[in-house]
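Inputs:
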Amino acid sequence: MQFEVIKNDPHTGARRGRLHTSHGIVETPAFMPVGTQGTVKGMTPEQLRDLGAEMILSNAYHLFLRPGHEVISDLGGLHRFMGWSGPILTDSGGYQVYSLSKLRKIDDDGVSFRSHLDGSAAFLSPEIAIDVQLALGSDVLMVLDDCLGYPASRQEAEQSMQRSMGWAERSRKRFDEVGGEPQTVFGIVQGSVYPDLRRESVARLVETAFEGYAIGGLGVGEPLAQMYDTVEQMDPLLPSDRPRYLMGVGTPENLVECVARGVDMFDCVMPTRHARNGWLFTRDGHIVIRHAKYLSDERPIEEGCRCPVCAKYSRAYLRHLFIAKEILSSVLNTTHNLFFYLDTMRKIRHFIEFEGFSELLTVTRNAGAQ
RNA sequence: GGACAGGUGGCGGAGCGGUUAAACGCACCAGACUGUAAAUCUGGCGCUCCUUGCGGGCUACGGAGGUUCGAAUCCUCCCCUGUCCA
C-alpha cells in the first residue's frame, strides 16, 4: 500500500490524497460505508460502486463469529465472498469491546466475549484479531484496541490506553510474522479526551510504526468541541506521509470539520442506519420520512439532488414504503444517504484541490449555525 | 318466533364490585441513533386546567333506569351483532 498527498490546503489542515491498494485506488479524504457482516446493509457491491464508494469497512469480530473467518478464507477471502472487488478495511473488534461491554471481560491478554448470537464463549487477542483479518484478506487491518466510552476518568483512560498500546505492539509483531504486503495494518490512538495521554499514545504508535494511524475512542458521547480539539491535537503529531483515519465519525458536518483537522478517512454507520430508521440527509438539514407532513409530498427527498432515488421517487412514496415496512424502503433510503455522504466527500476533495477548503468550511459552518 | 354468545378507547382484545382513563397488540404522533447485538430502541396517545405533580376537574366501557359508600364489572327493560334451532 502506498499513500500520496496530492495537495495540502494552505489555510487548514485538509489534505487531498490518494491511497493505492492492491484492490484499487482510494481518493482521499474518503468515506467508507460500513459493511459489518460482509454487506453494506441493503446495497449490492455494484450499487455501492455506482454511488461512488471506493473502499468499505467490515468487521473481524462479526465475521469471526459468523460464518467464521476460516469459512471465508476457504471460499477465497472476503472480497470474493461478498462480491466486492475494491479495497476493504476491517475493524478488529475493538469497537465491540465498547459496544458489547456487558458481554465481555477484558484483561491484558485479550477480550473474552459471550457471543451475542448464541451466548457461547469467544476470545479475541491482538494476535487472533490479526490472524482473522489476514484470513479475511483485508487490505487494511486494524489493531485490536480497547475502545473506551465517555466519560472516563484519567486513571481509566490511562490504563486503557496503555493496554491498547501494548496490544498495538503485539499486533504489529504478529502481522510482521505471519502477514505482510500487500496487506497493511493501522494503529489506533486512544487516550480519551486527555491531551497528554493522546500524545503518549501517538508517540508509542509512531515508534512501533504503522502504515496508517487511526484516531479511536471518539464519537462515544463526548462534547463535539472535545472531539474536534482531540483531532486537532493529533494533526501535527501524526506522520504527514501516512493516512489518518477517524474511526466511527460522523455527521456530515463532523466530516468537514475533521478534514480541516487533517483526517483522510472516515467510516460511520450513520448514513446507513439512519436510512433504515427513516432519517434522510439533505443540504438543508434532515427529514424524518415517516412524518405525516410527507403523506402527499410529491417532491424528492432533496430538490436538486443527483442521486438515483431523488431522480425518480417522491417523499410520499418513500414515506409509504417506510410506514408499510417494505424492504425497498431501506434500499432507497440507504441509496440516498450514502450518495449524500459520498457526494459530500467528492465536494470536500474538489474544494481542497481547486477552490480552497476554507470556503467549504465556512459554508458548512454557516449552514450549521442556522 | 326460540336458544345460546356477545356489544369496552381509531381497530383487535383483556378486565368481570373499589388499587381502571381502563392490561396487551396494532395503528397514530414524536424523539434517539457516530469503528452496526439496530429495517432498532424510547416516549406520548379521552378532553381540559394549572403553582407540571406518582396534581385538579370533566367525560367515558351499546342506551335508559336501578342496587351499592362505590359499577365497565350486579339487576331490569330497550337497541344492536353473531351462531344455531324452528
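Residues 327-355 of chain A form the longest helix (29 residues). Flag for discussion at group meeting.
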